Amino acid sequence: MEQALWIYNTLSRRKEVFKPLHAPNVGMYVCGPTVYGDPHLGHARPAITFDILFRYLKHLGYKVRYVRNITDVGHLEHDADEGDDKIEKKARLEQLEPMEIAQYYTNRYHAAMEALNVLPPSIEPHATGHIIEQEQLVQQILDNGFAYESNGSIYFDVKKYNEKHHYGILSGRNLDDVKDASRALDGVGEKRNQADFALWKKASPEHIMRWPSPWSDGFPGWHCECTAMGRKYLGAHFDIHGGGMDLVFPHHECEIAQAVASQGDQMVHYWMHNNMITINGQKMGKSLGNFITLEEFFTGNNKNLEQPYSPMTIRFFILSAHYRGTVDFSNEALQASQKGLEKLMNGIADLDRITASAESDAETKKVVGELRQKCYDAMNDDFATPLVIAHLFEACSVVNKLVDHKATISEADLKELAETMRLFAFDLLGLRPDNAGSSSHREEAFGKVVDMVLDLRSKAKASKDWATSDRIRDELAELGFEVKDTKDGATWKLK
User: Fold this and answer.
1) Exposed, middle or buried: residue 467 (CB in 10 Å: 0-12, 13-18, 19+)?
2) CA dist., res. 304 & res. 40, Å (int)
3) Structure pTM?
4) Of 275-279, 281-285, 377-381, where does mean pLDDT reach its minimum?
5) In this predicted model, what pLDDT tens digit does every residue of 306-342 receive, in sequence order?
């Protein structure tokens, strides 16, 4: 924990030094998926962003409790207070029980996260498993005078809250802006003010997902679950709350209001938000119908895709941009990521082919000596993963020179280079070779075959059989092998 980590806090709109409330313990809550459809690229970005945060904090020596929820009730269409529950609507279309839908898509989400090498959270609570905690939260807000009952539903009184506290502290909106933005929403009739939001909704007769409460048989509002579950598992005050930038308003703004209204102060110290993935400049998302599922990326089965892309290519693509910047989807960008990933993985694999010398040349020594701290500096500056990748590419250039015998490296420097590259690429960025499923002995055998062919070529050259020598080189090139002749013999690598 010698590293000083700076995090951009959406609440203060500036980078701040990370100081946990109860070091070495860190409490971290991230909004997970609403499970009514297949996970898409928009789901991959927050999952990977906060996976990096989770990995790095653990690496620095912190004991991290990472909570990421599953929303399986209460998230109505268009994030409004009226309309269908997204899961219940899907269940009707599929003629299934809502919890069948929730379970099926939760399983699909987990499988996609595993493919992307996203570590599972410490706790993964479901909204439906915490109805009691949400009812308790609603009752606290009622008792403190910041909510009211209307026809069996409970609404948060934004106007009353705003008289004592600032509603809009996270998003920068004032109440007049919120009112204007809310005019188009349905369901204003039950509310005192257009900006008020549902804490508890009375269920209509046909609504399947319902629970008893002091006010009505119904279900909690979408915003309640994260406040209630965050407090249950991380306490009344915790370090980090994360999610996509599209959640800043209304979801996270409402969470802050609920926390302050129920307990008198804010729960969260650092608010972190990843930016959106766009397609043709428009946010990618289910509600807009322009999303590409992760399975479609992996199979190539989508009209917008020119080819399949591996899970690691997707991960590399997301890490190639800073988490607070937008990422615009294109096949060209993904193909560039594919090549970049191959370059990095080949560079790391080639480390095993380098023979150490008595000492390193000056340039190699300089690059190796600076690499680790350069990567740490990038991570410590609000997780600048594109810069980490750039430093690792610089290391790959050194590896290529060493393989081609155009540079020398000492045993100690080779060990440092290998450890640093593997630490940042594998442990912290969470990348892995796309062929990770293949066994190491198969790869070893593959290398031995290529070496044997090059040995035959060397013998052909020694016998001045230039035709055979050139034929072997050209045929290997056609198969994707780049052969280089050096004074110490031939070297090869995959293009």
Assistant:
1) exposed
2) 14
3) 0.87
4) 281-285
5) 999 999 999 999 999 999 999 999 999 999 999 999 9
Q: How many CB atoms lie within 10 A of CB 165?
A: 16
What is the b/e burial string over 422-437, where b = at least 16 CB atoms within 10 angstroms of the residue's CB?
eebbeebbbbebeeee
DSSP assigned state of 287: G
Structure tokens at 452: 């044997």
The amino acid that residue 455 corresponds to is: D
- Give the CB-side neighbour count of residue 214, counting CA atoms within 13 A: 11
Q: Specify the CATH superfamily of domain 6-274.
A: HUPs (3.40.50.620)
Per residue in 239-278, pLDDT (tens digit) is: 999 999 999 999 999 999 999 999 999 999 999 999 999 8
The answer to whether 351 touches 361, Cβ cutoff 8 Å, is: no
> What is the rounded CA–CA span in Å between residue 310 and residue 331?
13
Q: What is the mean pLDDT of residues 1-22?
A: 93
Residues 132 and 231: beta-carbon distance below 8 Å: no
pLDDT of amino acid 182: 43
Q: Could you read off the pLDDT of 213-239 as tens digits, one per residue?
A: 999 999 999 999 999 999 999 999 999
How far, in Å, CA of 406 to CA of 302, rounded? Answer: 45
Alpha helical stretches, state H, 144-287: 158-164, 175-182, 224-234, 253-263
Instruction: Look up the CATH number of domain 294-428.
Output: 1.10.730
* Tokens 């979408």 sit on residue: 222
Q: How far apart are CA 108 and CA 106, in angstroms?
A: 5
Domains of the chain, by residue range, sit at 6-274, 294-428, 440-494
Of 293, 294, 253, 259, nearest to 273 by C-alpha is 253
Which tokens belong to 423?
A: 């630490």
Distance CA 104, CA 91 (A): 11
Report how far residue 455's alpha carbon sits from residue 16's, in angstroms, rounded to the nearest whole number. Answer: 58
Q: Give, rounded to a whole angstrom, the gap between the first and last alpha carbons of the chain.
A: 40
Residue 163 backbone dihedrals phi, psi, to 5 degrees: -70, -30
Is the pLDDT assigned to residue 186 strictly greater than 60? Answer: no
CB 67 within 8 A of CB 233: yes
**Tokens matching residue 409:** 């490296």
Q: Poorest-confidence range of 84-98, 242-256, 379-393?
A: 84-98
Which tokens hold the place of 489?
A: 């013999």
